[in-house]
Amino acid sequence: MATTASSTKVLSLYRNFIRYGHKFASYNFRDYTVRRSRDAFRANMLENSPEKIAAFITKAEQDLAVVKRQAAISQMYSTGEHLVVEVPRKNVKSVVN
Predict the structure, then answer these.
(1) Spatial CA neighbour of 20 closest among 75, 58, 59
(2) What's the pLDDT at 87?
(3) Spatial contact of 45 and 6, defined as CB atoms under 8 Å apart
(4) Angle, helix 27-43 to helix 50-76, in steps of 10 degrees
(5) Which end of the chain, N or C, is less packed with Cβ atoms under 10 Å?
């Protein structure tokens, strides 16, 4: 079973992946990063070996640095154009009453 310290570290890494994944300007990169992060963490969720957990944490920290850097670059060079799927649906009225 993973220790409390490693569980806290993994949860923190997961939250940061999701947080920085949502910062991509492009919908496709944003969606891919969040989906891939969730899949990777879920795939390793039941891991019990402390060595494998430590290796996973090290790899995740390196990957998080890449995601942070790429999200910042993505925001610097964003065009401001959005896809139809990105439009917030707050003011859309229901057709069926």
Answers:
(1) 75
(2) 61
(3) no
(4) 170
(5) C
Q: What are the tens digits of pLDDT across the range 29-87? A: 999 999 999 999 999 989 889 999 999 999 999 999 999 999 999 888 877 777 777 76
CB 24 within 8 A of CB 30: yes
- How far is 18 from 33, CA to CA, in rounded Å? 8
d(CA 33, CA 76): 18
**What global pTM score does this model have?**
0.76
Q: Both tokens of residue 47? A: 């891991």
Q: How far is CA 15 from CA 12, 20, 60, in A?
A: 5, 9, 12
At residue 94, does pLDDT exceed 60?
no
Q: Who contacts 42 (Cβ-Cβ below 8 Å, separation ≥6)?
A: none
Query: Which amino acid belongs to residue 10?
Result: V
How many Å apart are CA 16 and CA 9, to the nearest integer? 11
Which amino acid type is present at position 30?
Answer: R
